[in-house]
Amino acid sequence: MYERNYYDPIEVASRAEIGILQAERLRQTLERVYAHVPAYRRKFDEAGVKPSDFRTLGDLAKFPFTSKADLRENYPFGLFAVPREKLARIHASSGTTGQPTVVGYTKADIDTWANVIARNLYSCGVRPGMLVHIAFGYGLFTGGLGMHYGAERLGCTVVPVSGGMTKRQVQLILDFKPDVILATPSYLLVILDEFKARGIDPKSTSLKIAVCGAESWTYAMRDEIEQAFGIHAADTYGLSEVIGPGVASECIETKDGLHIWEDHFYPEIIDPVSGEVLPDGEQGELVFTSLTKEGMPVMRYRTRDLSRLLPGTARSMRRMEKVIGRTDDMMIVRGVNVFPTQIEEQILRCSGLSPHYQIELRRDGRLDVVKLLVEARPEATDDSVREGSAQMLMAHIRNSIGIGVEVDVADPGKIERSAGKARRVVDLRSKP
Questions:
Q1: Where are the alpha helices (DSSP H) in 177-296?
Q2: Residue 193 — φ and ψ, nearest 5°?
Q3: What is the CB neighbour count within 10 angstroms for residue 429?
């Protein structure tokens, strides 16, 4: 259906060409942060390294990591590499779990960001002239504005709806007839529910492509979205600390992982405990170094996302496997490491259950207890069907993950909905 062509020729450059470009840009970035960011100069000096110690790509492992704690310790502007008045824009996290993390962009950074987002969208099958409905949140969150600038750069017509007001979202889709929708996968399911509540077949809409990101989602979730809407759904990856959305994207020709735009972002996989760099193909924590950012370059930023690096397929640039979870959303239940995406996969194996769920953790004496609240599908109204679905889900989780769970099958609409990232885990265990 889709031709194999590219937004930017660098996407299909040889690995040797990509490596030469990365090495030169890394050298320049190391020199820039050492000269202009006192916090990085201190970190380098404490680690006993200088920019001159970088000679090959492998030498990057000599340099210290950056973490979210570094951004919070240098709040708000301590990691900027240019004077504040040289910045064109500032974004920030919500700060709901602590000090917000602040990121800054020069005019050139905004231009780079628009280009990599345009590249993302093009690889997902979006083409100039398409009408793009953006249901990512705008404001300090990087999702909405990042996607907006990229879609405009690609030559699309943009409808900047933002998140929330789901009834209005559906009405605008019906009235404006967009080709593409951009949203978190969990919010796309909320929109899907609204179509069904209004008795409208989602397959009857004009939508052809969904580009989803900002949270982990499984291939089973993709199947749910694609089959319900009759569209292609592609994954995109990014994080504010590196640039925002636009770091990597699936290609609609293959949908086999996300190609990283390696001319702008240098990826590594490390052991989350030791920090040792792992070879391509091994699973670990993703680390990114920005190669072209002026306002706030980040060096070896620990994303806490778990994935692995794979050779390119539809593009020359390496792929990252779909993120399976984060080091900080991993649940340890009676000694077993569990990720919400593993639970999600098992829910979607049960035909009577919807993809809306929440995991509650509590402690009974010394034992961890997992209660899984999941919604029945609207057609699964019979109590015996619901009980059968609950028993099936408990068996799937016990056999595939190795933990016992309590399952409560609720009526449709009972689980809290979000216009942004879904809250999947509620941990009620008291901290020692």
A1: 185-197, 219-229
A2: -60, -40
A3: 12
Alpha carbon of residue 30 to chain centroid: 26
Scan for tokens 């499984």, then name that residue: 218
First to last CA, the chain: 56
Helix (H) or strand (E) segment spanning residue 133:
strand 131-134
Identify the residue whose tokens are 């020199």.
Answer: 31
What's the DSSP call for residue 203? G
User: Letter for the amino acid at 265?
Assistant: F
Closest CA to 209 of 244, 171, 236, 239: 236
Q: Which of 309, 336, 328, 305 is nearest to 402 (CA)?
A: 336
Query: What span, in angstroms and rounded, lies between the C-alpha atoms of 356 and 349?
Result: 13
Q: What percent of the chain has pLDDT over 70?
A: 97
State both tokens at 256. 């086999």
Task: Tell which phi-psi region holds residue 344, choosing left (phi > 0), alpha (psi between -120 and 50) or beta.
Answer: alpha
Q: Are strands 131-134 and 180-183 parallel, antiparallel or unpaired?
A: parallel
Say if strands 157-160 and 131-134 run parallel, antiparallel, or are unpaired.
parallel
Q: How does residue 1 score in pLDDT terms, banded at 50, 70 and 90?
A: very low
CA-to-CA distance for 178 and 90, rounded, in angstroms? Answer: 30
CA distance 138 to 87: 19
The first and second tokens of residue 272, run together, are 């989350």
Q: What span, in angstroms and rounded, lies between the C-alpha atoms of 48 and 45?
A: 5
pLDDT in tens, 387-405: 899 999 999 998 888 888 9
Q: What is the DSSP string of 76-111?
A: TTTT-SS-GGG-SEEEE---TTSSPPEEEE-HHHHH
Q: How is residue 170 written in tokens?
A: 């559906």
Write 378-382 long-range contacts (CB < 8 A, 24+).
378/196, 378/412, 380/352, 380/353
337 pairs with which residues across the strands? 332
Could you tell me the two tokens for 222?
């993709």
